[in-house]
Amino acid sequence: MKLGFIGTGTIATSVIEGLLKSKAKIGQINISTRSYKNSIKLRKKSKKIRAYSENQDIINNSSIVFIGLLPKVASKELKTCQFKKSQTIVSFVSTLNIKSLKKLCNPVKKIVKAAPLPMASDGLSPTIIYPNHKLIKSLFELTGSVIVAKNENQNNHLWVMSSFMATYASIINLLKKYLLKNKVNNEDANKYLNIFLTGMLFEFNHQNFDLNKSIKSLQTRGGINEELLKRLQKDKFFKKIDVNLKKIFLRLKKANDK
Ligand SMILES: NC(=O)c1ccc[n+]([C@@H]2O[C@H](COP(=O)([O-])OP(=O)(O)OC[C@H]3O[C@@H](n4cnc5c(N)ncnc54)[C@H](OP(=O)(O)O)[C@@H]3O)[C@@H](O)[C@H]2O)c1
Questions:
Q1: Whether 94 and 194 share a structural domain
Q2: How far apart are the CA of 117 and the centre of ligand 1, in A?
Q3: Which of 124, 152, 180 is the last residue of a domain?
Q4: What is the CATH number of the domain that holds 37?
Q5: Mean pLDDT over each residue of the chain, to the nearest integer
Q6: Burial code of 105-133, b = ≥16 C-beta within 10 A, e = fewer?
Q7: Model confidence pLDDT, tens digit, residues 205-246
Q8: Fewer CB atoms near the end CB (10 Å): N or C, the chain?
Q9: How far is the CA of 145 from the centre of ligand 1 (A)?
């Protein structure tokens, strides 16, 4: 199996790193000489990596072609490329629907949208794919787990979740800054937050885990957990997140309805 990546940015690099660490049976991974830092880093990691300056050479030498370009660049670049019917396309681009991809990558019929996350490099990405494709699903399972969307609408709703990454990191950063500001040293702040978050997430993995029950049991009546939650609810913290998730969905829907 020969994989090719057009656009060797953050997400393509994470997927390649994850696949290299996995047991994937890959003969060759073709990448771009562009994205110079990533290209050099990946070439140092494995002899399976070959870099090309032309996207067309990446395509010509790959059976599966991944599109890791930014939305603004993707359509323009794909229009200049020639594909073969036997190839499979996997697009990471949120704003291109399957219909547009089929036009841009004509005569390719096997086209999958996928949303791996940077954690793929550590085998911990939840990857949304649509539509289902046995081989592509098995590849992304090697970089974490796979959620198959039932239709494009559900695909967009699942992609909304990926917009939460920077907000999630910012909330944790706020907790860390609180500790640092109050003279807790960096090592202890990291130690506390790392095991705190890991412990909380570990609970999710328990079978029959019930978030509603957990939220209740985490609040001692009259205690500080109950107080912070009530204060944030009163400030409409959660409502604001919900309202804005809907806006992100509408943005994805608008782009994909074109
Ligand atoms: N990051 C995420 O968590 C994530 C998750 C799911 C999906 N996605 C989607 O994945 C796509 C890539 O995102 P990203 O975060 O990886 O972006 P990125 O880091 O900016 O990567 C895009 C790469 O494309 C390269 N590029 C630009 N024009 C090119 C061309 N004509 N030919 C070849 N390469 C070209 C850029 O190279 P230079 O640096 O040299 O300009 C850059 O390395 C986006 O559509 C994004 O929406 C991202």
A1: no
A2: 12
A3: 152
A4: 3.40.50.720
A5: 95
A6: beebebbbbbbbbbbbbebebbbbbbbeb
A7: 787 889 899 899 999 999 999 999 999 999 999 999 999 999
A8: C
A9: 22
